[in-house]
Structures are given as C-alpha cells and as structure tokens.
From TrEMBL:
GO terms for molecular function: 4 iron, 4 sulfur cluster binding; carbon monoxide binding; iron ion binding. This is Hydrogenase maturation protein HypD. One of its GO terms (biological process) is protein maturation. InterPro entries: Hyd_form_HypD, HypD_1, HypD_2_sf. The keyword Metal-binding applies. Gene3D superfamilies: 6.10.20.100, HypD, alpha/beta domain 1. Belongs to the HypD family. It comes from the Bacteria. It comes from Hydrogenobacter hydrogenophilus. Keywords: Iron, Metal-binding.
C-alpha cells in the first residue's frame, strides 16, 4: 500500500526534480515566471521553501486564489450591515470574521459589541441554527471558489425541502476561469519585463469540481502552459518541471499533475447541482482586480426566497480601504507582501489591516508565517 503523504513529501524526489528544473532553465537562459493561482499553492510554496529552493530560476507570482482575500470592501461592509439588522444571526466561515470593513471594524468586533455573529465550519450548520431560532432571521454569508459552491447549493435545496422560512444566503461564490482570463487580459500583466507570467500552476481543489476542461482555452488563446497541481512538495516541484519542459519544447497546453483527484470533466454531479441553484452574475467586483465580468454566481429566481440580497436591503458606507494597504497589488501579483510598508510591523495575523493577512491562504499571511521578511 502506498503512503500518499510520504510519497509526495519525499526529499530525494524533490532534490531530483530540483536538479532537472535547474538544468532545463539553464538551457533556457532566463528566469521563468509562474503564477500559482491558488492561495493553497502559495502556502505550500512558502511552507516547503520551494521559492528559496528555485531562487534565481523560478519567480512565483502569487495569484488571487484566496476567497477571503478577493472579497471587496463593499461585500465585507454588506456582511457587517446585515449583521446589524435586529433579530438577525449572521453566520459565515472563520477567516471572514476578521477582515476589517470600511470603518475598520470586523464582524468579530461586532460580535464583541453584542451582535449575533457566528462562525460555522460547514454551511449546513446554519440549518440547525435556523431551526433552533425560529424567531430570528439566519443569514449565511457564503464565500469561496468552485470548491465550496456545491455545498452552498445543497444548503439552499435542503432549506427549501425543510420549508425553512428564516434562512437565507448571500452568494459570493466566485469563478476561477473568469479571473484567469481577466489577469491575462490585464495590461499590467502583459507588460513584459516588469511583471509577466510565463505559465500557470492551476488550482487543485477547484479543478476537482470543474475538471481540466475550462483551462484549455487559456493555454491555446494566450499560449500559456497550465499545469493543474497537487499541494505536496513533490506535486509542486513536478508541476514546475512539467511547465519548464513545455516552455523548453515551445508547447502551451494543459497538463494534469493532480491525476489522483482531478479528471478532464470534473465532478459532473456537483456541476449539475450548482447550475440548478445558481446562475452567472453579469459582473462582480474582486478586491484588486475590480469588476470582472461573469466571474461570480447568484441565486436563481426559483430559489429567490433564500436569497438574502433580495430579502434585505441595507445602506452601505462608501468603501474605504486602509490607505497604506497594497492588498490589491498583491492579489494582482504585481507586488509582494514585503513591498508593503505595514507588513509584519503594523499589520500582522493578530492585527490584520487587509484581507491578505487574514486568511492562511493569503500571500501576506503566508509570508509572515514562513518568515519571508
Ligand atoms: Fe495589506 Fe497588511 Fe498585506 Fe500590507 S501587509 S498589503 S496592509 S494585508
């Protein structure tokens, strides 16, 4: 029986891949710029010191694949204002509670002021909360990429089946391919020399759901290799090697390193479930990227009774970022966390001033945790 954990953490394999990557890059004669879209990969790269190992050979450009980081200020403000509605329980995942809104307050601050704000580990926990509090409105603030969307779809269907009248959802689920396309079309990224992207390490967990199919367009249209990768050190090193190979051979295709979990078609059952409950939003704002067309989902009319955005209208403050926070640039991959004047001094994981320092998938938090000061 194979021990997957140790097989994909094998130091000898990492060393062998390091040698091959460096040999190939030396033949190329230039540094290779790779964007890892997903915050989980940023975390792995920092944790295992892969950036240090390949220093001078591979430049990792950290992408926007952290769901908490990309929530724009206006959405954080929306969660805060919804939580203030009398007789309401606002539920969401842990990290989001700590992101400061326009008035510098987070949901966690609100909770200490007496508002009923609750952290849930699974969105399905909100079903029980709604049943136990029939006199209150329970609002689930849903965030996440394609990985968590099916579970929110299950929540909405279950709430309907159970006839719950006091549970609703704010849908903030975002879509990976639209963001990749936006980045590739961005003038900042196209400016070869300053910030460039030679290739992508494609997200692993997201691709379990959507498959490798949606990435073929980018590889072909923008001539960028995409390798869907796992998260262990051997996975990441192997993916880098596959990318370097493609560049060396003048190819730009989609390859799947994470074959133990990701297929071409993805999880069709989950895709069907998602399309039953959600439809595309025409536009959605991402922190750092701005308005990205067709990059998020909204709840279909057939489930409108469970759509908190239709049920509750709240007045929002004018969105106000911390003036010195450069999260937007970090998310676009055009600045490093260490370029921020507040990094590691005023802004730390215990006192985050921007979303990238809150989530463990955020680039600022990863740099802080793994001491890239
Ligand atoms: Fe924003 Fe803090 Fe990161 Fe600076 S270190 S960009 S303030 S989150």
């Amino acid at each position: 029986q194979i021990n997957i954990r140790s097989e994909f953490k094998d130091e000898a394999k990492v060393k062998a891949l390091e040698r091959r990557i460096k040999e190939d890059i030396e033949k190329l004669g230039r540094e290779v710029y790779i964007m890892e879209f997903c915050g989980g990969h940023t975390h792995s790269i920092m944790k295992y010191g892969i950036d240090e190992l390949l220093k001078g050979y591979v430049r990792f450009v950290h992408g926007p694949g952290c769901p908490v980081c990309v929530m724009p200020m206006q959405r954080i403000d929306l969660a805060i204002e919804l939580a203030k509605i009398p007789n309401t329980v606002l539920c969401t995942y842990g990290d989001l509670l700590r992101v400061p809104g326009s008035n510098r307050k987070s949901l966690l601050n609100l909770r200490s002021e007496g508002y009923d704000v609750r952290m849930v580990y699974s969105c399905l926990d909100t079903l029980k909360i709604a049943q136990e509090n029939p006199q209150k409105e329970v609002i689930f603030f849903a965030i996440g990429f394609e990985t968590t969307t099916p579970q929110t779809a299950v929540l909405i269907q279950k709430a309907k089946d159970m006839g719950l009248k006091n549970l609703s959802v704010v849908c903030n689920h975002v879509i990976t391919p639209a963001a990749i396309q936006y980045i590739l079309n961005s003038p900042e990224i196209r400016e070869i020399g300053k910030v460039r992207i030679d290739a992508f390490i494609g997200p692993g967990h997201v691709s379990v759901i959507i498959g490798t199919k949606p990435y073929h367009y980018f590889a072909e249209e923008f001539q960028k290799p995409v390798v869907i990768s796992g998260f262990e050190p051997v996975d990441v090193m192997q993916s880098v090697y596959m990318i370097v190979r493609q560049i060396k051979e003048g190819r730009a295709v989609v390859e799947n390193q994470y074959t133990r979990f990701v297929s071409y078609e993805g999880n069709s059952k989950a895709q069907k479930l998602v399309s039953e409950v959600f439809e595309l939003r025409k536009e959605f704002e991402w922190r750092g990227l701005g308005i990205v067309p067709y990059s998020a989902l909204k709840i279909r009319r057939s489930y409108e009774d469970f759509d908190a955005e239709r049920r509750f209208i709240v007045e929002l403050p004018k969105p106000k970022e911390h003036p010195a926070c450069i999260c937007g640039k970090v998310i676009r991959g055009v600045a490093l966390p260490t370029d921020c004047k507040l990094f590691g001094t005023v802004c730390t994981p215990s006192n985050p001033l921007g979303s990238c320092m809150v989530s463990s998938e955020g680039a600022c938090a990863a740099y802080f945790k793994y001491k890239r000061m």
